[in-house]
Predict the structure.
Amino acid sequence: MAERQNLEDSISGVKKIEQNLTDCAELIEMGEAENDEEIVTEAEKTLADTLTFAKKQTLEALLSGEADKNDTYLEIHAGAGGTEAQDWSEMLLRMYMRWAEKHNYKVEYLEASEGEEAGIKSAVIKVSGHNAYGWLKTESGVHRLVRISPFDANARRHTSFGSVWVYPVIDDSIKIDINPADCKIDTYRSSGAGGQHINKTESAVRITHIPTGVVVSCQTQRSQFQNKDVAWSMLRARLYEIELKKKEEQIQLIEDEKSDIGWGHQIRSYVLQPYQMVKDLRTEAETSDTKGVLDGDIDLFLEASLASRIKGDAQQI
């Protein structure tokens, strides 16, 4: 029902834009014929208002999915390569956190595993704010970095990989049945960022959903009970996200999305040497402002991938 309403609203919006353009063209033609600048000025103002309305309609169309308005979980995992890949994963984490700050979203650490020398092996954050999931949902995939390694004494060029996984936070009104017998629960001593309670007790919790292989963990709450409660919520969200992808009839299966963190599976390349460029391999969107991107200016890629997804859905209808 909601999807049908969104479609009807979109059609109504397009008709309004078309009517405004037709009216403005006629008014401008009339104003020029009668040498009436007031009519032309009024038509130009209407055109400007129509452009603003069209941009708003475009944004609403991009963010009209079932769970787009929700908060989101974002996971980052380092690929093979040790310290180099772990440092890249921390750079990715910083990029998304800076993006969230620019959009006035709240960011909360849920789990982090620090690298042995630098960076992180993995991390999970929660990004809270209207349309957080909608904006970030297409970021799932492998991100590739090419640069002169700061950890290589011979200053050689290295290629590193990190994977990103995005799934929506769901509320209690959405029923996701999980059989406890299908889950394995482990407790362990926390590590990484988390405050004074870290590393004192085995309060961190990891839940493995055996049928799907989904693994979630939380370590930042004060007690094992609180960490377990958050982990269960994360698991429900992950399983719901899987169901969302099935409903959307995406061509690529869920297991295909859990690809190896390496060559041939990346969605975006970040090249710092021998030239500077960030390019999305799905949409061909690119920019030479690598510093800006790593500082969180990624809207160019988010909008392009969302627009591409909408276009793909339209072609299937």
Observations:
- Residues 194-199, 250-256 have pLDDT under 50 and may be disordered.
- The CA atoms of residues 12 and 306 lie 21 Å apart.
- The longest strand covers residues 157-168.
